[in-house]
Here is the input.
Amino acid sequence: MQDTHDAQDMPDMQGILQEIADRIEPLRGQGSVAAYIPSLGGVSPDRFGICVAMADGGVYGAGDWRVPFSIQSISKVFSLALVMSYDYDSIWRRVFREPSGTPFNSMIQLEADQGIPRNPFINAGALVVTDRLLTLTGDAAASVRGLLRLESGNPSLDIDPVVAASEADHGHRNASMAHLLASYGNLENPVEEVLANYFNQCALEMSCEDLAKSALFLARHGVSAGGTPFLSPNQSKRVNAVMLTCGTYDAAGEFAYRVGLPGKSGVGGGIVAIVPGRCAITVWGPALGPNGNSLAGIAALDHFTALTGWSIF
Amino acid sequence: MQDTHDAQDMPDMQGILQEIADRIEPLRGQGSVAAYIPSLGGVSPDRFGICVAMADGGVYGAGDWRVPFSIQSISKVFSLALVMSYDYDSIWRRVFREPSGTPFNSMIQLEADQGIPRNPFINAGALVVTDRLLTLTGDAAASVRGLLRLESGNPSLDIDPVVAASEADHGHRNASMAHLLASYGNLENPVEEVLANYFNQCALEMSCEDLAKSALFLARHGVSAGGTPFLSPNQSKRVNAVMLTCGTYDAAGEFAYRVGLPGKSGVGGGIVAIVPGRCAITVWGPALGPNGNSLAGIAALDHFTALTGWSIF
Amino acid sequence: MQDTHDAQDMPDMQGILQEIADRIEPLRGQGSVAAYIPSLGGVSPDRFGICVAMADGGVYGAGDWRVPFSIQSISKVFSLALVMSYDYDSIWRRVFREPSGTPFNSMIQLEADQGIPRNPFINAGALVVTDRLLTLTGDAAASVRGLLRLESGNPSLDIDPVVAASEADHGHRNASMAHLLASYGNLENPVEEVLANYFNQCALEMSCEDLAKSALFLARHGVSAGGTPFLSPNQSKRVNAVMLTCGTYDAAGEFAYRVGLPGKSGVGGGIVAIVPGRCAITVWGPALGPNGNSLAGIAALDHFTALTGWSIF
Amino acid sequence: MQDTHDAQDMPDMQGILQEIADRIEPLRGQGSVAAYIPSLGGVSPDRFGICVAMADGGVYGAGDWRVPFSIQSISKVFSLALVMSYDYDSIWRRVFREPSGTPFNSMIQLEADQGIPRNPFINAGALVVTDRLLTLTGDAAASVRGLLRLESGNPSLDIDPVVAASEADHGHRNASMAHLLASYGNLENPVEEVLANYFNQCALEMSCEDLAKSALFLARHGVSAGGTPFLSPNQSKRVNAVMLTCGTYDAAGEFAYRVGLPGKSGVGGGIVAIVPGRCAITVWGPALGPNGNSLAGIAALDHFTALTGWSIF
Here is the structure.
């Protein structure tokens, strides 16, 4: 139903993005850059970028919107979409799609649920999705990179090998999770290979512009940049539903309450959000709030929905 | 943005509801009627009703859509809206708005979070909301009843005293929760009074028609049946967001995935769902699935979104 | 086997107790007096008493060993012994005898185990024991008082009604636990009566001397002060085993490691310990350490085992 | 104090062991052999052996008391004792000595306690002990083997390489735990090395006779087979205390209640128990009960304490 918008609906997007960038100014550098992956710690905390890619093709940006950053967990949206594109619904036998509750539950929940992670966006669930994609394609990280190059139209976007190596060196927690999944028989490939693919897909470097264009299929009911269906309308709707309920870690409810859009964040400071039928928005601010989401990014999306009046509710 | 729908958008609603009733036929009586409140156990499991109240005033129904049933937890939406209408945002100091994760967490979570319930739709959170409404109005259950009578236009809808007494007699778990909240100083009124008001508001009896009309303000950006604002557009949007992320117990993610609408269920077998800008839908089927939601009701809403193509995603 | 000790085994007990009191001097007043029961908060934190009652009848004391204090959870040992004396082993169908792990587990554990508390010395388990004693005797608190008067030879020891009322007023957490037990069908009597009996038995006032004499049957293989068997040798051994594994809250392992004797503490600052075949020891120091055990009391018992060389290991 | 036993205390030990073997007959083969390590699954479930090594040098046995079996977790007692012999008390900065509560807590507890395992006998704690021993000696498994050869007087006892390899192949859960410890900085050596040493020490093969002789120092206040102090009396007492509170997994309270002796079990079906001052007892029965302890073994120790009257309580 959201497809039949009149031209007069369209606000002055460039002006809105500039206003958001101005309003965000005092927040720059508040919060703290993710430190657990050493090579991420070097990013300047006061960067800020925002980009909107419209369903009809327009692209608008402000601030550092063309500066690449580490997409980290945002990659989980694309690996999930890829698995669903190959395999339709079978991944849901191996992972639930429920919000995860408090963070300390991840391991106890895996035990209580016999190795089935609570959703594809917590690390345990994302490892299962990557494992499946690895089986389906032989190289999960390369598949994600291929999709992103195609959708963004940027053939040079790539994995940052320094970040990937840094994640591997400090990835004891993910290794712990992967071995726990393996102990329940919920990995098809060797733990080491799944981890390598996972660290690589998280280490992809993209700008706000690249990311907004790449996520646009979720605002176009599954239609890819090339105009062909990548996901069915129903699948696209469902990826958005999972993003809304599970996309921002422990703060999914808060994000839905404040922003009111499906969204997925990463510890690199990026967030992708979708207005179904209208546009994909990317924000980037490396300094994170207490829940691991970009502090400036959440505020920017808050302003965006207030200024445009766009919300799914 | 969802307000400017053309007339040709409008499908044959009466035909759709009849088709849903037909499709639901084989599911009638599957699942099991909630037994923990003895007086609820007497309801025939094969009842089924559905009603749609359109934002523009049209009302459509099929099956047992005018038969009253116990609304139970659906009352939590109205007590929350009332508290927000009086008190704007201050309730959120006493309750979070995050999904609750696995059910066994409710008490451990209360301990970890020092008495702040995870959201207003789990019982602990609803007790806090009722407590606040009791302080604000002197009679929380009567306030909810008053709102529902006004919005539904049915001045005779009322609390079933037998159900209320039955809940009180078997309410040890809610009493346990209320005392735990009190031990953290998160109740303003005596435990017994809060419980009495809570059991009364849950024991309200309403038909699908009454309920759909009563919830319509959430599809009209907060505008009441009388045409005046009951909630602000922003508040209405936020109640919908909380319904989507927390409205169907432990199955909120599944509900968002399958149905894709904000919704709230009750163990009486009712579910209310909202298509923002368009309509409120109520379904009723007393036999419940494993997560405590109406089995036929969820299936009916699934068919509804498939047949209308309406979704927020 | 511990019964055949030669006379030359007997150290200079009075000298030992005096030395302990001297060593404990710098600790007096460290830690903090339990504040959650207001009437307990008024006790001076620097009191200290110690008493040893020998199996052969000798009684030794130092410091405030004849000053009465609130025995609180130490009463749980006597209610358990009473139930076992009436009912042999049937209480173990309603409560386990395993250590409780971390404190935040008490409620989650009750849910996971369908209402069976982990041991009789955590509050949930003690409520079940009191409930059983209430059924068996008609007045659980009076039965405990009767046993203590008989064993201590002090017919005037009694419940402090101010403390009992203070516990009832601030007993939301115990009320929460009792209702949760009731929701699982693991109480035989009304919640209010069980709580009243429980608060009364915890509010008993006794001196170190009274308590050491009262607990002596556990050092005499179940033989009461009057010389008749109160418990069988096997039952006495088993109460000691439960004290060792579960008697000092979350610090049972630490207590076994440092002190090496079965013991039971209370938030009033008292601790009772048993050297099977030899003696019962009571210490009292109202200021508590982080685990809710008397700081000076634990140190005193540590010195006691070092100076006497007595340990079960 | 337990050292001064008269000769007339000594019961007819050979007769007692024979009677236990007779009584155990109907239990042979009940329960199930541990299956998660494939090579353990091949052991015949109806084997049964028992051996008592007296502090004064006498050794008594019945049944399969000279048949070697996989000692598994019993090795944790010896690695702990070795670390304490080198390092006195410093290991307790890296591991607690509290009972572990319900089994599903192990990982949530590690998170709540920032990577400090609850005790040295759960797997997480044993990995920390092995890691420390590896740092201290360069080869943890060889050190444990060396101690056992010396104490048992059997220079040919050794690691079963098939069992060790089998554990490594199916050790995802231990690998998960080790990586989680590493993520908290609580391992000094690489995960793979710690795991290899751990699997090797668990794969040691010993008979009841070897084991009873090897554990005898814990009944002799730390004095080794050679007559020299291996542990101080205080350390020996403390290892016994940890065995009592934490030695039989989730059933430590039950074991203390029924048997009343410090004990440590392994999934190979062995149990070692200590009567301080008197003797070490080993039982072996490969078929396990629901808590992972030898079914026949627990029953045999129950009979042992009943027939001898020996208990620490």
Notes: The longest strand of chain A covers residues 49-54. The beta strands of chain A are 32-33, 49-54, 59-63, 69-70, 158-159, 204-206, 263-265, 270-275, 279-284, 287-288. Residues 152 and 214 of chain A are 5 Å apart (CA to CA). Chain A has twelve helices and ten strands.
